[in-house]
Amino acid sequence: MGTGGISRRGLKICCGVTAIFLPSVFKPKNPEITVYPQGLENIAFGLGGFYNATINATIGMIVAINNRNYGSFKFKNTTAFVNCRGGVVAEVPIEQSRVPAHGKLNISTSADIMVDRLISNPSFWGDVLAGSVNFTTEATVHGEVTVLKILKLHASVPSSCNISIFIQCQSVESSCKTKINL
Length: 182
Description:
With 182 residues, the chain is of the alpha+beta class. It is built from three helices and ten strands, in the order H-E-E-E-E-E-E-E-H-H-E-E-E. It has helices spanning 2-25, 115-120, 124-130, and strands at residues 32-47, 53-66, 71-75, 78-84, 87-94, 97-99, 104-114, 132-147, 151-166, 171-178. Strands 1, 2, 3, 4, 5, 6, 7, 8, 9 and 10 form a ten-stranded antiparallel β-sheet that branches. The longest helix is centred in the first third of the chain and has 24 residues, at 2-25. The chain is elongated and about 75 Å long. The two termini are 45 Å apart. The mean pLDDT is 83.
């Protein structure tokens, strides 16, 4: 009887410690996302009528995702929208992929900028003359989180980024905020 009491007591202590620490260890952490523009790839001009000209440009970029969680995240195709002063000026396709647990993923994509929308904004030229143009991006990525190859949960990760292009020094800064929703 003496050994049975000790093993039950040990089991209770083990369960108690696990119940206390397990939620903090497996608590979902927001992924870190960084956007790295790579340069201008393509410029296209179109004439749709007498006064209806369009200009489009493509900027290549790498989206770096750092997953700090114990679960991998497999996500579906999505589109991010780039805004300048409240108007959508670009779309960024993001192809489906998988970010491993405690891993990193670099996604190569491109932003198809609708230059005519950008330059038609009355504030755009003032920003250019001031030396910087600010953009925001919005995207929600839907997918599935797999923890320890056993537990599968549906999740969505809305993200918003602020991107500043500094014209004088020809540099770009970006900061992104994300929140995982299970």
